[in-house]
Fold this protein.
Amino acid sequence: MTSWEPARTTTGRGRIRWIRVAGLLVVIAAVAAALGHQLPASSSSTAGSPTDVLRHEHRGPLGEADGAVPDGTTVFDDEIPGVAKLNADLLGALRRAAADAAGDGVQFHVDSGWRSRAYQERLLREAISKYGSEEQATRWVATPNTSAHVSGDAIDIGPSGAAAWLSEHCAGYGLCQIYGNEPWHYELRPEAIDHGCPAVYADPTQDPRMQQW
Ligand SMILES: [Zn+2]
């Protein structure tokens, strides 16, 4: 028996249950509408991706000094800490790739680069509240101890056209996608120039580096 069957009855008890169900649906719809309203309608990078949502929800005292990057930031923006604090070799490879992509009419934007521990902690807290558990959250957001963004060794590239360009050419620059569920996330893998990129992990929980908490 499903919860909908009482709606078809004409007994008083059935009606009351139906009214309760209907009321609950109204509440759920209102909550969903409120949540939906907070989400960006679209974005310069992969629309609706969890990191995207988290990035746009970033509020409060954490600013550029913690690694927040303004819209339109490029890998050449030295004055932005989220770019300047990236590993120098990673940044060099990204700039070579970005220059060649520009020749193909594709512009790289930095959706996220280096992040402070405080920024990472906030992203993780937000992800736990969004996904309901630490276990689910860590499929998408690393801890401050494990995040390659905190160590300056990872960048999230947007928009999706730029990530697509890079996915075709990345190995030649020693850049590799690491996670199947994060096509925008790149790290430096110099050996890829000669040997190609290693197989991607399905998501960060498959990455041995993420096993520490
Ligand atoms: Zn990333």
The longest strand covers residues 154-158. Confidence is low (pLDDT under 50) at residues 1-19, 21-58.
